[in-house]
Design a protein that fits this description.
Blueprint lengths: L4 E6 L2 H10 L13 E5 L5 E6 H7 L13 E5 L3 H13 L3 E8 L4 E7 L5 E7 L6
Parallel strand pairs: 1-3, 4-7
Antiparallel strand pairs: 2-3, 5-6, 6-7
């Protein structure tokens, strides 16, 4: 058995894809109008997006989880400056910030935000000679 994909349930596909494109992920042209969209990540994993309507088409009783997200999607950046620039670009595009970029005690430049559906997104890069 092998982990093959991660799925995210989204309220607004266009808004979700805009956010993740700002993080460098690629999606087919016109995917904003689809109910299911996916992209291949490094190592062959897939990240899939399904609208609430699609989820309810096969699970009519589905309802979104409540409370704080328990998943964080962590994006490795090439440098501390890229963490800062990516964070600023996402916030300028309407993303909710959890914690602005800071130099973490574990040797990384680190920031956290929320995607349009409230999922956690972390940005990080090694400080100096530290490894990620």
């Amino acid at each position: 058995m092998a982990l093959d994909a991660f799925g995210i349930h989204v309220e607004d596909m266009a808004r979700a894809l805009d956010f993740y494109r700002r993080l460098g992920l690629e999606f087919p042209e016109g995917a904003e109008s689809e109910g299911h969209v996916e992209t291949e990540l490094a190592g062959g994993l897939r990240l899939m997006f399904d609208t609430i309507e699609v989820v309810r088409s096969f699970d009519p009783d589905w309802s979104p989880p409540v409370g704080s997200p328990r998943v964080v999607f962590a994006f490795s950046c090439a440098s501390p400056a890229e963490v800062d620039a990516t964070y600023e670009r996402l916030v300028a595009g309407g993303a909710d910030s959890d914690k602005p970029p800071w130099d973490a005690f574990w040797g990384q430049r680190y920031a956290t935000l929320r995607d349009p559906d409230g999922n956690g997104v972390a940005l990080f890069a090694a400080l100096g000679g530290a490894s990620t």
